[in-house]
Amino acid sequence: MALHETFSLGVDPELGLQAEVAALNAQFEDATAQEILRAAIRHQFAGDIALVSSFGADSAVLLHMVAQIDPSTPVLFGDTIKMFPATLLYRDELVEKLGLSDVRTFKPSKEDLEANDPAGMLWMSDTDACCHIRKVAPLERILTGFEAWISGRKRFQSASRANLEVFEIDQGRVKVNPLADWSAADILDYAKAHDLPPHPLVAQGYPSIGCMPCTDKVAPGEDPRAGRWRGQDKTECGIHWPTHGKEIDGSGI
Question: What residues contact residue 61 under an 8 Å CB cut-off, 6+ apart?
């Protein structure tokens, strides 16, 4: 039962959403990523779901899967204005190659930048606040109206993602993680099998790619995300926190 159906039946929205997510996780426990995506895009959340993509190191796999199911699925890409130029070029290359027809690039608001980061150097003093105004707040705005969104997170990526479920609740929406149980080898095998171009920075030592100031090269043997916010006790930008990073302080910035 989709979320909008629970409203019409008079079910408490929060309880209805929890029940829906639990049922979906049980139903798709042994399903493939493609089966999960097909059900989410064509049936469960048809017309109310978007893929959020960083167009990073592993992004081509999920983008390809979605394009095979429905290339008109909205794809949301956050341009923080601190991205590697190579990422923007890679985005354009994949959009053309995969035939994605509804890619929406969103950016931080001018007002937020003027009020909180007028010099563009907030990342040097407060990375959480920088991520919030450049990633978290803009994503929340563009997700307005969507019932669900698709994420490319995987359990192997970090300890904080080790217990990741395929379906979860996020800010009153359903988040779908079809690649949750995929390994790094699975990603590479799929990319090779479908002749997907790699992000150009991967070959230069960047297995996980975010904003340019806060992404470093990773040495052999290091955790793939070791280059993200290196030297800090920080492993996520905030868009995957339950509060979307709003606990930074009372204002949410």
Answer: 152, 179, 187, 190, 191, 196
